[in-house]
Amino acid sequence: MTSSAPTRAAPLLEVTDLAKRFTLKGTRTVLRAVDGVSFTLARGDTLGIVGESGCGKSTLGRLLLRLIEPTEGSVRFMGREVTLLPAEPLRQMRRHMQMVFQDPLASLDPRLRIGALLEEPLVIHGIGTPAERRAAVAELLTTVGLPADAAQRFPHEFSGGQRQRICIARALALSPELIVADEPVSALDVSIQSQILNLLGDLKRSRGLTYVFISHNLAVVKYVSDVVAVMYLGRIVETGRAEDVFARPLHPYTQALLAAIPEPDPTRARAAGPALSGELPAPDRMPDGCRFHPRCPHATDRCRTEAPRPVSVARGDAGVAHVVECHLHG
Amino acid sequence: MTLFAVDGLAVAFGPAKGARTRVVDGVSFGVAAGETLGLVGESGCGKTVTVMASIRLLPSPPAHIEAGTVRLGDTDVGRLTPAALRDLWGRRIGVVFQDPMTSLNPTFTIGWQLREALALHEPTLSPPDIERRVLAMLERVGINAPERRLAQYPHELSGGLRQRVLIAMALICRPQLLIADEPTTALDVTLQAQILDLLRSLRDELGMGIVMITHDLGVVAEFCDRVAVMYAGRIVEEAPVRTLFARPRHPYTQGLMASIPRLTTDKAARLPVIEGTVPPPGRRPAGCAFADRCGRVQARCRSDAPVLEADADDAAHRFACWFPRDGDAAVASTAATAATAGTA
Predict the structure, then answer these.
(1) Would strands B93-96 and A72-77 be described as parallel, antiparallel, or unpaired?
(2) Which of A218, B117, B172, B322 has the fewest other C-beta atoms within 10 Å?
């Protein structure tokens, strides 16, 4: 896997205090979907974002590309402030940042042939002559491992794995720097998942891509990521090099998540008893203090009243710190 | 003693008269009381159709049982009248589906639905008895303040609570057999762990047999006693869970096990893959359905369909392969990598 250069250049993506609040229709209830998230991502690295449903990981992914407007905070990408860009420069900027979604069928217009689907981004950005664009489409199909005649066919003629290859090809059409992939293999069968994960890995190596990889599957995230961020109720509660976080999880939530995964090995029984009791509280009823305290086995009075600040516990390889938001660690 | 026995089941889909497509072909398995059988396979392999057809939950047409017998204890399920079937469902067989939202009626309260399930099957119970049983069951599945929940509608509950209500409903008549179709797939991992723990303790308490349909080998390893692996409408391998994970013999099982990323997977290595895709029903090849994707296919595999047979030195381990090889994940991954290199 590519690591960042020893002399750290400016990161490709720098996110500071990013927040998104939704006001529920007809009420004054405010839902804090993303609640003060900061991180940096070096070019060529993969950031894995893990967390359970409702933790805000998909909202965060959409905020990075400004598919939805942030309530506050900053997203700097390739040295420019994305949150302040007017419409036309934003459209230009989007060439360099693309997204791959969970459900490939819902992401592809069923009435367009694959050739037209892949050509569309090039047309929108006025790239190439029709002949050049056809050549580009053929090359994209080869890149993602689809036959050339796929260009003449419609999305419904393909299997789920092939459709995800088409979505990846479409995201690659404009040669982006960054791809935000939101649960890209979750809807696929296991034997197909590994094909797509291999493809994403090949593309990262051959094109120097940077990924934000959003998933609820910890084993998948560990496999693809250089850096991991664990989200709980809108905040990153732990982040660091993937090796560090998985070898030495510090936040009780990260520990509980890891303990809850059933390992495909019957000789290694999961620890008896529920790893974590209770469920995610409704995000419009954010607990006081540490937002994890109602489910935390180590909660103290301090956790019930005072929100923990991020603490850098150790500096891992390539200068990426292992950071945790928990009173147990400072 | 086998509690639930399916023998030679074949299911086809199609109109009452006319062309049908065989989806499940010659499937046999059994479950003992207190035992959990995992039925694993990828989407479209026929695992859900097998189980739902076996308890006659699939409407005909379009589903047709073309061959096979199904027994629950002394009952021949295939011969039951519609009235007897309704008594079988709910009272002797409980079913938990993947999506609790579509399995609960949105227009009735939780309490109404639970009381109905019980009153239907045990008409002699008095209303106060029904109320007591319902509350006790909700408490048993880990629902706090059950009195308050009774008046709530499904949409007012979280996903985890809805799945608990569904389990309560499936178990309230203390069935002998529980069918669980991907019961935790829609849930987060921390909730999944809670629900699996709950099902395990209820199984031990009630001594029921469980058929667990899942695609998650982690869930299988943790929860099941025995596993049957399905591919393209047939069982290709069946064994006690430890045997299957330690010594898978069918190349499909081996490939499946090798291809899942685990916490221990080396990041620098490519994942082994099973190339190609599952042949759709109606276009399955004459011989072994896995032949086109198999790294060690030979001429015989293309002409004759292999039969599910017991291992020479282990009667509990059955597999359908002409050229089985010992394989732990390492062997399988070499085979799969070789196959990848061959096609690249």
Answers:
(1) unpaired
(2) B322
- In chain A, the residue whose alpha carbon lies closest to the alpha carbon of B258 is A191
Residue B101 touches partner A, C-beta closer than 8 Å = no
Instruction: Give pLDDT tens digits for B292-341.
Output: 999 899 999 999 999 999 998 899 999 999 998 875 444 444 444 434 43
Let me know if residue B240 belongs to a domain: no
B42, B242, B260 member nearest A264 (Cβ)? B260
Partners of residue A193 in chain B, C-beta under 8 Å: 259-261
Q: Which chain B residue lies closest to A247 (C-alpha atoms)?
A: B263
Tens digits of per-residue pLDDT, A51-67?
A: 988 889 999 999 999 99
Residue of higher predicted confidence among B250 and B143: B250
- On whether residue B149 sits in a domain, the answer given is yes
Which residue in chain A is spatially nearest to B241 when comparing CA positions? A266
- Is B107 found in the same domain as B192? yes
Chain B residues close to A165, C-beta within 8 Å: none
Chain A residues touching residue B256 (CB < 8 angstroms):
190-191
- CA B3 to chain A, closest CA, distance in angstroms equals 24
Give pLDDT, residue A3: 47
pTM: 0.85
Is residue B15 domain-shared with residue B109, that is, in the same domain?
yes
pLDDT recorded at residue A223: 94
Average pLDDT for A90-98: 94
Contact assignment for B261 to A197 by CB distance below 8 Å: yes
Q: Is the pLDDT of residue A224 over 60?
A: yes
Of A194, A257, A264, the CB nearest to B189: A257
> How many domains in chain B?
2
Q: Which residues pair with B32 in a beta bridge?
A: B2
B216 & B261 share domain: no
Q: What is the pLDDT of residues B213-236, one digit of tens each?
A: 998 898 999 999 999 999 999 999
Q: pLDDT per residue over A281-320, tens digit each?
A: 766 778 899 999 999 999 999 999 999 999 998 776 667 8
Q: What is the least distance, in Å, from the CA of A16 to any CA of chain B?
A: 28
Cis peptide before A287 (omega within 30 of 0): no
Quote the pLDDT of residue A275: 63
Task: Specify whether B255 is located in the same domain as B223.
Answer: no
> Chain A contact for B125, CB < 8 A?
no
CATH number of the domain that residue B31 is part of? 3.40.50.300
B293-302 contacts, C-beta under 8 A, 24 or more apart: B293/B252, B293/B255, B294/B251, B294/B252, B295/B251, B295/B255, B295/B335, B295/B336, B295/B338, B295/B339, B295/B342, B296/B251, B296/B323, B296/B325, B296/B335, B298/B322, B298/B323
Contacts of A275 in chain B (CB under 8 A): 190, 193
d(CA B249, CA B141): 38
**Residue B262 within any structural domain of the chain:** yes
User: How far is the alpha carbon of B82 from chain A, nearest alpha carbon, in Å?
Assistant: 36
Can you give the residue range of the structural domain that contains B283?
Answer: 249-342
**CB-based contact A262 B261, cutoff 8 Å:** no
| A190, A198, A266: residue with CB nearest B215 | A190
The answer to whether residue B266 sits within a structural domain is yes
